[in-house]
C-alpha cells in the first residue's frame, strides 16, 4: 500500500477586488477610468471586424475574445457604476456612478448595433450547427458534439452553443441583423439612449428622495414612543393648544410604521395616499418610456416590447405568462375573499368599540390603508405574536452569522471572515469555500453591509460584482457578491433588531449571493430574469421552519461581546443574561402565521406583474402613445387586489411611479416574482419534504444550481 499522504494545505484565495481603490476615485477619475475601459473594448471590436471575415471567423478567434473582454470589463464597471450608485455616501459620486452606468449601457448598445460584427457572429453560429430556425437552434443547444470549425479543435458543448446563440440574439434584438435596412440599428440605438436617460432619471429620483410628512403626536396615536423618539420633532407651544409635530419620512425610519401602528384611520389614509403619489414625474417618464420601447420593438419586427423582452427569458410567450398569472389569480381568489372577510370583521369590531356601535359606510369597507393595520392585529390576536418581542430574538449581526451556519450545513459551504479595506467601515468580507468534506475549494468573495446610513440605497439588494468565468487561458475568475441591507444601525441602548419580515428578506437576498457564489459558470452569462428569483425564493422557505428560527435566534440581552461579527462595534448598554433562543411555541406560531394572508401578498405581486405586461403589450403604437398608466394601475389594483381605494381624482394612486423594477431592466419581467414563488414552493416541497435540514437534499439542490 502507498504511504499515507498528509492532507495538503488549502491554497490561499486570489486577491480580493480593489474596492478601496475604486471608492477613492473622485467623480472625474471615475468617468475617466470607465471611458478607458470602454475605449479598450471598442478597439478590440474594431480589430475583430477589420481582421476577420465570415469564412475565417471561429469561436476561438471571435466569440472567445468578445466574451473574455466583456467579462474582464464587467467587475470594474460594476464597482464604478452600480455599486457606487448604491453605496457611496457622496451625492456627487452617486451621480457620477449613474453616468458610468449610462456610458457602459451606451457602449453595449453600440457593440450590438454593429452589422459587421453581427455578420461574423452569424457565420460562427452556422458553423457550430445553429440554424436560423429557433426550433432547430433550441434542439442544437441541448446537444453536445463538435461544430465544423469551433477553433483549435475545442469541443462545442452546450455552454459554447448557448453563448453563441445568446450573443447572436443580442445582435438581432439591436437591429444589426435587420434584412436590407442598415438604418434600423442606428434608430434602435438612438431610441435606447432616450430610454436610458429616462430610466436613470427615474432611478435617481427614487434613490435621492428624502421626503416625508408632518404629524402631530395625537395623529400618531398607537405608534410606539421608542419609534417617535428617533424622529425629528418640532415642539408645540406651551399655550394655545399647539401639539408637538413629528417628521415621518417615507423611508428610512424603520422603527416607525404608520400603516401598521397608527390607530387613527385618517392618519393612515393621509400617509398612504401621500406615499403613493410621491413621484408624478416618474409617471410621466414611464409613459414616454413605454412609447419608446414599443417603437423599438416594432422596428425589430415584434408585436410589442413584452414580446421582445420575452426572447431573453425561459417563458415562451406573453400570452402563456398572462394565462398562468390569471389562473393563479382565480385559484387564489376564494382564499383572498376569506382573508378580506376576516380583516373586515376585525375592523368592524375595532371601530364599533371606538364609536360605541355607531358605524358609517366607510367603516364597513376595507381600504388599502387598513390592510397592514388589521393584519398586524390579526397576528397578535390569533397567534399571540408581538412583533417587537419576536424581534428581540433577532439581533441583525447575530442572525446573519447564524444564517451563514444554516447555509454551511445545508450546502456544504464554509464562510471565513477576513480583514481587508473596502468602501466603508461597516462592510464585512468573507472568503467562501466548499466545506472540508466537499474538498475545500475556493468559491468566491462575499461582501456584506447590513446597516442603513446616509447615501446608501434604501432597499435590500444583491449586486453580482463578478460572475464566475474561465478565460481562454484556463484561468478561472471566481464570483464576487455584495449584499447591501438597510437594517437599523445599532445605537446606545438600542440594538439592531430584525422583524420577522426582515429575516425573510435576509434569506432572500443572501440567497441571491449564494446562487452567484456556487455557480460554476464557464462564460459568466447572467441567468434569465424568470429564473434568477427561484433559488432565493426557495431559501425563504427556511424562515418558516421552527427549528431554523430557533437556531438563528438569541435574545439580544444574552449576546456577549465577541459573539457577532460586529461585536467590536457593539455600543448599546444591554444587561447580559443567560443564552436564550426563541421559545419553541413562539417559533411555531411565527412559522404558522407566515401563511396568513399569503393570498393577498401573492395577488399584490400578480397585480404588478399584469400591469407590467399590459403596459408593454399595447395593441398598436398609437395605443402606446396614448396610454393612461394611472388609470390602468388603479383599475388593475381594484381588479386583482380587491381592496378599496380612494375614488377622488386627486387621490388616485401613482405608486407605479416608484415601481423601480420597470426602470431597472425588469421591464416586462416582473412576472418572475409570482411565477417563481410557485416554482420555488414546488421545488422546496419536492427536494426537502418534511426534512428541511437534510444536508443530502441541500447538496443535491446546490449541485443542480452549480450546473
From TrEMBL:
Keyword Protease set for record: yes
Could you state a single Gene Ontology molecular function term? metal ion binding
Domain (Peptidase M3A/M3B catalytic): give its ranges: 263-700
Co-factor: note? Binds 1 zinc ion.
One Pfam family it belongs to: Peptidase_M3
Cofactor(s) for this UniProt protein = Zn(2+)
What's an example GO BP annotation here? Answer: proteolysis
Q: Which domain of life is it from?
A: Eukaryota
Coiled-coil residues are none
Record's keyword terms, sorted? Hydrolase, Metal-binding, Metalloprotease, Protease, Zinc
Keyword Signal recorded: no
User: Where is it found, in Gene Ontology cellular component terms?
Assistant: mitochondrial intermembrane space
* InterPro entries hit by this protein: MetalloPept_cat_dom_sf, Neurolysin/TOP_dom2, Neurolysin/TOP_N, Pept_M3A_M3B, Pept_M3A_M3B_dom
Q: Which family does it belong to?
A: Belongs to the peptidase M3 family.
Instruction: State the name under which the record lists this protein.
Output: Peptidase M3A/M3B catalytic domain-containing protein
From what organism does this protein derive? Answer: Thermothielavioides terrestris (strain ATCC 38088 / NRRL 8126)
Amino acid at each position: 500500500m502507498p504511504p499515507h499522504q498528509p492532507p495538503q494545505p488549502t491554497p490561499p484565495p486570489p486577491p480580493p477586488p480593489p474596492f478601496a481603490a475604486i471608492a477613492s476615485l473622485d467623480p472625474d477619475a471615475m468617468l475617466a477610468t470607465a471611458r478607458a475601459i470602454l475605449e479598450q473594448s471598442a478597439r478590440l471590436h474594431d480589430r475583430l471586424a477589420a481582421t476577420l471575415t465570415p469564412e475565417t471567423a471561429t469561436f476561438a478567434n471571435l466569440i472567445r475574445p468578445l466574451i473574455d473582454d466583456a467579462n474582464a470589463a464587467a467587475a470594474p464597471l460594476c464597482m464604478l457604476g452600480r455599486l457606487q450608485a448604491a453605496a457611496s455616501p457622496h451625492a456627487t459620486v452617486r451621480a457620477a456612478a449613474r453616468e458610468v452606468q449610462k456610458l457602459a449601457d451606451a457602449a453595449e448598445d453600440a457593440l450590438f448595433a454593429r452589422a459587421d460584427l453581427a455578420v461574423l457572429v452569424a457565420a460562427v453560429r452556422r458553423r457550430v450547427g445553429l440554424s436560423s430556425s429557433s426550433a432547430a437552434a433550441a434542439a442544437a443547444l441541448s446537444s453536445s458534439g463538435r461544430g465544423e470549425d469551433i477553433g483549435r479543435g475545442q469541443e462545442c458543448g452546450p455552454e459554447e452553443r448557448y453563448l453563441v446563440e445568446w450573443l447572436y440574439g443580442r445582435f438581432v434584438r439591436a437591429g444589426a441583423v435587420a434584412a436590407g435596412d442598415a438604418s434600423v440599428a442606428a434608430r434602435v440605438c438612438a431610441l435606447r439612449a432616450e430610454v436610458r436617460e429616462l430610466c436613470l432619471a427615474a432611478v435617481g429620483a427614487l434613490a435621492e428622495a428624502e421626503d416625508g410628512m408632518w404629524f402631530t403626536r395625537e395623529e400618531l396615536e398607537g405608534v410606539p414612543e421608542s419609534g417617535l423618539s428617533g424622529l425629528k420633532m418640532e415642539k408645540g407651544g406651551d399655550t394655545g393648544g399647539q401639539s408637538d409635530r413629528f417628521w415621518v419620512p417615507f423611508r428610512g425610519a424603520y422603527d416607525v410604521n404608520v400603516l401598521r401602528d397608527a390607530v387613527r384611520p385618517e392618519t393612515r389614509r393621509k400617509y398612504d395616499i401621500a406615499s403613493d403619489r410621491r413621484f408624478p414625474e416618474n409617471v410621466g417618464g414611464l409613459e414616454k418610456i413605454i412609447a419608446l420601447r414599443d417603437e423599438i420593438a416594432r422596428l425589430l419586427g415584434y408585436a410589442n416590447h413584452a414580446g421582445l423582452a420575452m426572447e431573453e427569458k425561459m417563458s415562451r410567450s406573453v400570452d402563456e405568462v398572462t394565462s398562468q398569472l390569471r389562473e393563479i389569480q382565480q385559484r387564489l381568489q376564494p382564499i383572498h375573499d376569506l382573508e378580506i372577510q376576516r380583516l373586515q370583521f376585525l375592523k368592524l369590531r375595532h371601530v364599533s368599540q371606538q364609536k360605541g356601535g355607531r358605524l358609517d359606510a366607510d367603516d364597513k369597507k376595507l381600504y388599502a390603508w387598513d390592510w397592514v393595520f388589521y393584519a398586524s392585529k390579526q397576528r397578535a390576536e390569533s397567534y399571540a405574536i408581538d412583533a417587537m418581542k419576536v424581534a428581540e430574538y433577532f439581533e441583525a449581526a447575530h442572525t446573519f452569522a447564524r444564517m451563514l451556519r444554516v447555509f454551511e450545513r445545508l450546502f456544504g459551504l464554509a464562510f471565513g471572515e477576513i480583514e481587508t479595506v473596502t468602501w466603508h467601515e461597516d462592510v464585512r468580507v468573507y472568503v467562501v469555500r466548499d466545506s472540508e468534506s466537499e474538498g475545500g475549494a475556493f468559491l468566491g468573495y462575499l461582501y456584506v453591509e447590513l446597516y442603513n446610513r446616509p447615501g446608501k440605497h434604501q432597499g435590500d439588494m444583491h449586486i453580482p460584482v463578478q460572475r464566475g468565468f474561465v478565460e481562454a487561458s484556463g484561468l478561472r475568475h471566481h464570483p464576487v457578491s455584495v449584499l447591501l441591507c438597510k437594517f437599523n444601525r445599532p445605537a446606545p441602548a438600542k440594538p439592531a433588531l430584525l422583524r420577522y419580515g426582515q429575516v425573510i428578506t435576509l434569506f432572500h437576498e443572501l440567497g441571491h449571493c449564494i446562487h452567484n457564489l456556487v455557480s460554476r459558470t464557464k462564460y459568466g452569462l447572467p441567468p434569465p430574469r424568470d429564473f434568477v428569483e427561484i433559488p432565493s425564493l426557495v431559501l425563504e422557505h427556511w424562515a418558516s421552519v421552527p427549528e431554523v428560527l430557533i437556531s438563528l435566534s438569541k435574545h439580544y440581552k444574552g449576546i456577549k461581546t465577541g459573539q457577532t461579527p460586529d461585536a467590536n462595534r457593539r455600543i448599546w448598554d444591554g444587561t447580559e443574561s443567560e443564552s436564550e433562543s426563541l421559545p419553541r411555541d413562539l417559533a411555531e406560531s411565527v412559522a404558522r402565521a407566515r401563511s396568513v394572508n399569503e393570498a393577498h401578498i401573492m395577488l399584490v405581486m400578480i397585480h404588478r406583474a399584469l400591469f407590467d405586461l399590459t403596459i408593454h403589450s399595447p395593441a398598436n403604437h398609437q395605443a402606446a402613445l396614448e396610454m393612461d398608466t394611472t388609470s390602468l394601475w388603479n383599475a388593475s389594483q381594484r381588479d386583482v387586489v380587491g381592496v378599496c381605494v380612494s375614488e377622488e381624482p386627486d387621490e388616485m394612486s401613482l405608486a407605479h411611479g416608484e415601481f423601480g423594477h420597470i426602470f431597472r431592466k425588469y421591464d416586462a419581467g416582473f412576472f418572475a416574482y409570482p411565477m417563481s414563488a410557485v416554482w420555488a414552493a414546488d421545488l422546496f416541497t419536492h427536494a426537502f419534504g418534511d426534512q428541511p435540514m437534510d444536508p443530502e437534499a441541500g447538496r443535491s439542490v446546490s449541485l443542480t444550481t452549480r450546473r
